[in-house]
Amino acid sequence: MLRFRQMKTLQKFSSVHAAFHNHFNQDRHLISRDDYKARRSAALAEWKTLAG
Q1: Record's superkingdom (predicted)?
Q2: Which residue of 10, 21, 23, 41 could cross-link 4, Cys pair, CB 3.0 to 4.6 Å?
């Protein structure tokens, strides 16, 4: 938090980071490798369509 000079910048970063983290966080230790890879690929494809 010390690296951000303005609170507005910190809020913008944290909101984008939270959305990105929630989209890609799949709790790897709770699911099998195949399920994880499938979900990760689906999330990445969706992210590419949203960003592109």
Answers
A1: Bacteria
A2: 10
- Give me the pLDDT at residue 44, please: 86
Answer yes or no: is 46 within a domain: yes
Asked if residue 2 is part of any domain, the answer here is: no
Tokens of 19: 């959305």
Task: Please count the structural domains in the chain.
Answer: 1
From the list 26, 46, 45, the residue with the least C-alpha distance to 36 is 26
Residues 6+ apart with CB under 8 A from 30: none
**Per-position pLDDT tens, the chain of length 52:** 567 777 878 888 888 887 777 667 767 677 888 988 898 888 889 888 877 7
